[in-house]
Amino acid sequence: MSSATSAAAAAPAPSPPAGNGEKVLSLRGITKSFGSVSALTDINLDVGAGEVVAVVGDNGAGKSTLVKVLAGVHRADDGEITMNTKRVDIVDPSAAIDLGIATVFQDLALCENLNVVENLFLGREIRPGRLNEVDMEVQSWQLLRQLSARIPTVRIPVASLSGGQRQTVAIARCLLGEPKLIILDEPTAALGVAQTAEVLDLIERLRERGLGVVMVSHNMEDVRAVADRVVVLRLGRNNGEFEVASVSSERIVAAITGASDNAVSRRSSRRSQSGPAAGNTAEPPPGNTAEPARSATSATAGTEENTAS
Ligand SMILES: Nc1ncnc2c1ncn2[C@@H]1O[C@H](COP(=O)(O)OP(=O)(O)O)[C@@H](O)[C@H]1O
Ligand SMILES: [Mg+2]
Question: What is the pLDDT, as a whole number, of residue 123?
Answer without folding.
Answer: 72
